[in-house]
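Why do we care about 3D structure at all? Because function follows from shape, and shape follows, mostly, from sequence. That is the central idea of this module. The next example makes it concrete: a single protein chain, its amino acid sequence, and then its structure expressed as tokens.
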Amino acid sequence: MTDTPTEQRRRAPSMDAEQRRGMIVRAALPLVAEYGGAVTTRQIARAAGIGEGTIFRVFADKDAVLDACVAEALRPERTLEQLAAIPLTRPLPDRLVEAAAVLRAHLDRLAALLGALHATNGRAGARRTGAAPDRAAGALPVRRALAELMEPERELLRLPPDRLASLLLGLLFAGAGEEHPPSPAELVDVLLHGALTTTPEGRP
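And the structure:
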């Protein structure tokens, strides 16, 4: 006999408040990206496999859930783990293309979430976005992780790894809002080899 959803919820491992908050936010993130502020707590509860009342035991209201989703989307930990997993034994261009793809995916997820909130909440959505944690602060550990990926080639680089990491992040941020942004491979090619096929003097 198959357990009912209610029975499955009763048998779920117990969680403390912080763990439950995290579980709810993870379930809510894709829904917020799709529906923005129009998402309901009933939809979130269904996605999390919990009763709707459970949400209000750890969040004051739906706005608190939305704020937590924005904060979670801005957290760099997941991106840092993916960057740290890139082997330093791979060629530098391959390392940077993979890193740029990881960062592009992060920016796309963030843009989808904030765009949906702004579209459905209007001024309230803009205030929520503005109240989010400082993006520059979150970019600092990402920049350091990018620099570490370039560290083995430090002596071959025209600029220090941290400067090149800042340039790559700048290129990624600049293209984030474009309909057809440059691909990670294109960005890395320009970063490493410049925009010209030859020097102004005609030398390769």
